């Protein structure tokens, strides 16, 4: 079992990578200009990534707990259409997915693995695959970016790797504590300048975003004269995505 100090370092390093702009898109993936889509409160898909996928930017309240707060976040959503028309009797609706992290890009996940996932799910029923970049991540805006320079991010990672764990002595523990505190300060200053978003990007908020995505998906089907999903979520989560699924079930057991 990893020592607490080692676990803290791994978690912090994962956060550093997750909030890196360079980590949002793999080099071998097709490109798409997400700013070409105007964010909307209703779900409006547009052809994207060479026309093989559909993308949307769905506006959500920044603070779900404060109805008087008019600030918003635009969630980047991607859909791999089903292999049958939505009007076909074998159409099974949408399966939402989250690849984990926390902080991994659902857009990137569907681009890389969406078709493989769809092949594994399709039997008598055929599903469309939907994922998203959680608030603060990847193509969703505002972004949670602690460092605006790659050099500063790399320096932080190297310092974290070089400090040693609890067994390295009290000086190493104090240095690690100071390093983590300084990282927190850097993130707080950057967040205030760019958003803010980090204070509103917890798992409970993302679970509430999922409710909104399910509801807007049903609304879209109704507008198009198609059968909706009854407001219920079909979901597959990986790694941290299983925790998100557990939050959803706990907070919205009827959904």
From TrEMBL:
- Gene3D superfamilies assigned: alpha/beta hydrolase
Question: What keyword terms does UniProt attach to this protein?
Answer: Hydrolase, Signal
Q: Domain named AB hydrolase-1: which ranges?
A: 96-254
Q: Name one Pfam family in it.
A: Abhydrolase_1
One term of GO molecular function: hydrolase activity
Q: Where is the signal peptide?
A: 1-26
Answer whether the UniProt record assigns the keyword Signal to this protein: yes
The family note in this entry says: Belongs to the peptidase S33 family.
* This protein's name: AB hydrolase-1 domain-containing protein
Which species is listed as the source?
Ophiocordyceps australis
């Amino acid at each position: 079992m990893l020592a607490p100090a080692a676990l803290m370092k791994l978690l912090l390093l994962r956060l550093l990578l997750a909030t890196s702009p360079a980590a949002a898109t793999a080099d071998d993936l097709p490109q798409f200009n997400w700013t070409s889509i105007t964010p909307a409160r209703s779900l409006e898909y547009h052809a994207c990534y060479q026309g093989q996928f559909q993308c949307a930017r769905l506006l959500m309240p920044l603070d779900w707990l404060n109805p008087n707060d008019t600030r918003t976040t635009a969630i980047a959503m991607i859909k791999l259409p089903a292999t049958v028309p939505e009007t076909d009797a074998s159409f099974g609706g949408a399966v939402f997915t989250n690849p984990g992290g926390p902080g991994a890009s659902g857009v990137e996940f569907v681009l890389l693995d969406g078709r493989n996932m769809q092949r594994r799910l399709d039997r008598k029923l055929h599903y469309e695959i939907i994922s998203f970049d959680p608030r603060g991540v990847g193509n969703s805006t505002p972004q949670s970016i602690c460092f605006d320079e790659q050099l500063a991010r790399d320096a932080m990672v190297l310092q974290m790797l070089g400090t040693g764990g609890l067994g390295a002595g009290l000086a190493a523990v104090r240095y690690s504590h100071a390093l983590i505190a300084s990282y927190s300060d850097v993130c707080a200053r950057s967040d205030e300048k760019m958003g803010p978003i980090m204070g509103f990007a917890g798992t409970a908020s993302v679970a509430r975003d999922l409710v909104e995505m399910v509801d807007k998906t049903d609304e879209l089907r109704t507008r198009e004269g198609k059968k909706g999903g009854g407001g219920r979520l079909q979901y597959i989560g990986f790694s941290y995505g299983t925790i998100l699924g557990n939050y959803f079930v706990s907070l919205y057991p009827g959904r």
